[in-house]
């Protein structure tokens, strides 16, 4: 079942974000500087056109102050109050070296990361309102960035150089680099064995599950590439699912279903799919013994387990400081090909620009933006 959300934009919608929670607000950005805040019922609550009239390429809510909204356009991030959308509270100008493609806010709401066309990842101290660190390693456009849940000083980036990188903000170089091109060649597809990448795995979108250790990256080869981070931040395992017949544009984990390994994807084949990766080998070990998320006492156990894992990881990081060379970390870990089939697949009417998981009045849903000014909300009822 789907519903169309209209009346919020006059131009193509490029991005969507959810503030979280059953009654949380949603925000979308479009071409020409348009920003719209929506109610969970699909009604436009407020609209704003940013003065620069640059395309709004990404929106993100603060996890600690859900009314605080960040909107990226050009080399700037505008700080907005989603409840009173009258104008920017602050303009973080020049935080991108080139056009910003993606932003992510860490779980403490203290840091914002940008990914831009120069290939750089820039980390902004939100209290000081300035760039505190610039991470340079991508050889092409950096298309996506995501902070790791439960690890506010660690993030993942992905780019059109076909690389996924894990960063610790205490270091100036990646902890490890995962080459999607190498993975595709080793996977044994004929055109890739011959060295002819007709659909090269350009990385478009990266997401991290709420456990903080399972990554998904949507790529131009139609695959969603997966990786697991092990003890000491090691690149422990990798794999892929053939998610789309054309380029995979979006991949986002859902945090509000019975376990955290549900993944939503969208592609240039005009398809939107939902995957249950909970039993796949790459994540099965990570989730072993996690139980249902509905029981509060199990949540507390899970938090304790996660804290213990973080403490162990911190100790391992100290031991390995300076020892883990980038080249050694690039060694191919255990690879695996997923057997998962989508639990749900929608045939959308246009190429997908953005997929946003959201709880709409308690109803698990996916909001999809495409080449039009209209959003589509798909219900995931019954899962």
Automatic annotation (TrEMBL):
Lineage: Eukaryota, Metazoa, Chordata, Craniata, Vertebrata
Family annotation (Gene3D superfamilies): YVTN repeat-like/Quinoprotein amine dehydrogenase (2.130.10.10)
The entry's keywords: Repeat, WD repeat
Protein name: WD repeat domain 53
Pfam families documented for this protein: WD40 (PF00400)
Stretches with biased composition (Basic residues): 290-304
Database matches in PROSITE patterns: WD_REPEATS_1, WD_REPEATS_2
SUPFAM superfamilies (alphabetical): WD40 repeat-like (SSF50978)
Source organism of the structure: Electrophorus voltai
Stretches forming WD repeats: 135-177, 254-285
Region of interest (Disordered), ranges: 288-336
Keyword Repeat: yes
Biased segments, Basic and acidic residues type: 308-323
């Amino acid at each position: 079942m789907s519903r169309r959300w209209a009346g919020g934009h006059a131009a193509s919608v490029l991005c969507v974000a959810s503030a979280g929670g059953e009654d949380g607000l949603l925000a979308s950005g479009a071409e020409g500087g348009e920003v719209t805040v929506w109610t969970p019922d699909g009604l436009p609550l407020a609209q704003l056109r940013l003065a620069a009239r640059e395309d709004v390429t990404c929106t993100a809510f603060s996890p600690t102050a859900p009314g605080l909204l960040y909107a990226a356009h050009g080399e700037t991030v505008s700080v907005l109050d989603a409840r009173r959308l009258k104008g920017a509270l602050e303009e973080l100008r020049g935080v991108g070296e080139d056009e910003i493609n993606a932003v992510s806010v860490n779980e403490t709401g203290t840091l914002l990361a940008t990914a831009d066309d120069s290939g750089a990842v820039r980390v902004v101290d939100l209290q000081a309102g300035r760039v505190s660190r610039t991470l340079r390693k991508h050889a092409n456009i950096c298309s996506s960035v995501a902070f790791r849940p439960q690890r506010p000083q660690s993030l993942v980036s992905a780019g059109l150089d076909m690389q996924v990188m894990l960063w610790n903000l205490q270091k100036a170089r990646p902890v490890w680099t995962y080459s999607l091109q190498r993975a595709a060649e080793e996977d044994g597809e004929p055109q890739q064995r011959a060295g002819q990448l007709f659909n090269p795995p350009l990385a478009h979108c990266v997401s991290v599950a709420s456990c903080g250790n399972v990554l998904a990256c949507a790529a131009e080869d139609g695959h969603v590439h997966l990786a697991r981070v092990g003890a000491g931040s090691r690149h422990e395992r990798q794999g892929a699912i053939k998610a789309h017949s054309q380029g995979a544009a979006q991949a986002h984990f859902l945090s509000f279903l019975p376990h955290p390994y549900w993944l939503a994807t969208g592609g240039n084949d005009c398809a939107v799919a939902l995957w249950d990766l909970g039993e796949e080998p790459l994540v099965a070990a990570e989730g072993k013994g996690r139980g249902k998320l509905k029981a509060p006492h199990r949540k507390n156990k899970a938090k304790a387990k996660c804290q213990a894992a973080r403490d162990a990881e911190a100790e391992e990081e100290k031991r390995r400081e300076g020892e883990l060379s980038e080249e050694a970390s690039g060694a191919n870990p255990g690879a695996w090909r997923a057997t998962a089939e989508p639990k749900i697949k929608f045939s959308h009417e246009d190429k997908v620009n953005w997929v946003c998981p959201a709880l709409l009045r308690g109803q698990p849903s996916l909001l999809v933006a495409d080449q039009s000014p209209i959003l589509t909300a798909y219900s995931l009822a019954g899962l």
